## 1
Amino acid sequence: MVIYVDTLFLLNALVDYLLLLGAARLAGEPLRRLQFGAGAALGGLYAVALFLPGMGFLNHPLCRVAAGVLMVMAAYGGSRRLLRQGLIFLALTCAFGGGVVAIGLLGGQGLALGPQGVFYSKLDLNMVLLSAAFCYGILTVAFQRLGKHTALNGELVEAKLTLGKRTVKLTALVDTGNTLTDPVSGRPVMVAEGESLGPLFPGDRCPGPEDLREPAGALDRLSRGEWRGRFRLLPYRAVGVDRGLLLALRVDRLELNGVDQGGILVALSPTPVSDGGGYRALVGAVRGG
């Protein structure tokens, strides 16, 4: 059998990208597509290297583990749930590989799992690209539907926050038990993990972990110049906390599942808002489309 390097690289990189993307969506992680692309490219290069002369040692289980760790680090580096992300990615990879083997046993002639544990196809490159695009579309629709109808006490929605020209997307839980409101406008306040909103800030205005834990001391430093009035302190009460303060940021616009909610106050939580990491923010009432 003749295996073409370009097809081998592209096919494995595309499969790895879809798996990395799917694992992030399942975990409610921010979709850092450039990082996913870097991780997928490493997977494609590893698949090609396995077939190069003198590189047979890369087939050793330890080398495979090392390659997988590098992919996960490249794709999810910086996440506090790196281990969890890696385990979800591993589970998806095993499920996908098992599905490909099953299809092959049933006589499928498209995607196949080779003896080196990499994917190859007898289809030409154009068909590979078309198939990958189709699979990506199906995967995106499936995860969007899951995101809209999966919840603990409400609904998981895609939230997009805009501040000036900067935006960030994350998964939010519509929580009717979230009674935190803006004392000025009376509108519900969104509670988001502080580290998830990093892309909204330039480097000198990005609140650090210490700023989130001690917001009173950080308010003056963060509210200078054009950022005056953006930050404020928001009092709250919670189980085990009689009187606490959260650093809050007023964003220009919040969109939930594409529906504009207008400007809103976002409280920056110094700790995760979800035990399992399935979402990164809590919102109250949602306007319909």
## 2
Amino acid sequence: MKRKKARFFKRHWFSRLYLRVLLLIDCIVLFSLLQVFAYSIFNPPLTPLMVQRWFELKSLHYTWQPLSRIAPALQQAVMAAEDQRFKDHHGFDLVEIQEALDTFQSTKGKKMRGASTISMQVARNLYLWQGRNWFRKGLEAYYTALIELFMPKWRIMELYLNIAEWGKGIFGAEEAALYHFHVQARKLEPEQAAFLAAILPSPCRWSASKPTAYISQRQQDILAQMHLFAPFTNARKP
């Protein structure tokens, strides 16, 4: 009799634990869905990286501008520089991922080229913390899939241009244009847009207004390819 009771309580305990784990997973999934759906409509007031910069610098420069008030050249520049298949993939550029794996194998793990898409960068910057561990990478992939599922491409681009960092504590195209070139984002020239895109891999290390020889060469390469990418023109008006 005691053995039967022990088995019953053991099974009952595992059942309760299983149900609680399922409930927790359901809550996490629901919360993430609400997060992505909310930012498909509403503009984010802050991002985790902005909060981090505020604590580091005690200052923050962030002004939201709709896509219609950002120079189309900046869209073209970031696609040329960061994600040339942005309009064609569903969040993950399989060509770049394969090339990154080939580089990793050919260098025996000593070198790993980036394969991050604009969608992946939005997922990382909008919802997650900075880091390189596999758990965060998994969450990044999960949020990327949700973003691509619930948001049109123009909205992903709009979010990207507004939450990207273009200097320490300088967030968004409007503040970047003012900080580096003393113009509004809608007045950026193609050459200026190419400089902004050129520093995106490391915006706290490089400057668009005081470029190194490497950044100047990168800007020229981006400028030469910008005509290949059509900007979005169907974004909602402010």
